[in-house]
Amino acid sequence: MKILVVEDEITLGEQIVSGLEQSGWVAELSCDGIDALYRATSEPWDAVVLDLGLPKLDGLTVLKGIRDENVSCPVIILSARNELTQRVEGLNAGADDYLTKPFQMVELVARLRAQIRRSSGNASPVIQASGISLDTRTSKVLYQGQAVDLTALEFKVLSYMMHNTDKVISRSELVEHIYKQDFDRDSNTIEVFIGRIRRKIGSDVIKTVRGLGYKINAD
After folding, report:
1. Buried-most residue among 4, 6, 23, 109 (CB within 10 A)?
2. What DSSP state is assigned to residue 103?
3. Rounded Cα–Cα distance for residues 142 and 121 (Å)
4. CA–CA separation, 83 and 98 (whole Å)
5. Residues 1-17, buried b or exposed e (16+ Cβ, 10 A)?
6. pLDDT tens, 134-179?
7. Taking the model in full, what pTM does it have?
């Protein structure tokens, strides 16, 4: 999963990015409203963590701009503003959740997991499809009841596909969601990861759609 963190306090923003990466996600930092709006609407994200008190363009304006561009990924507001009217205004502007500062990283991670699951149509923290069981809380994977040992990048590939069952996912889309923007990304490595995962869970689970990409069928 790829998360955009919008926070003008650079130290706090870097701490959030680090915490999300320790939870197994790709996270990138934007420090002002103009940059945040551009990146949120021009790159694919699985969720956005958005501060309200931003320079150049305030957070509510950024949020409205994101929704005006029909970007539907979950947005969690992270703000020191705790008044009821401000929380309601943020939710009415298109936010999916609102977390006030100071906060615990474990709660932000839990809220993000819940919102990402729901946006992909999965209410349960354990996603199941084609004999695979993936626990989003513990990052544990079972195939037909047996534990599967995956590397961090293999898990990222499988997790993204499990969140998007029945959807054909191209190699370039997978690259966008498992690597940071400044990483030397090569879509050919996706074939390597897919091959490794297939050897661990069976060759028939991840389907190849010739010329388009890969797919895991829902149960």
Report:
1. 6
2. -
3. 20
4. 11
5. bbbbbbbbeeebbeebb
6. 999 899 999 999 999 999 999 999 999 999 999 999 998 998 888 8
7. 0.84
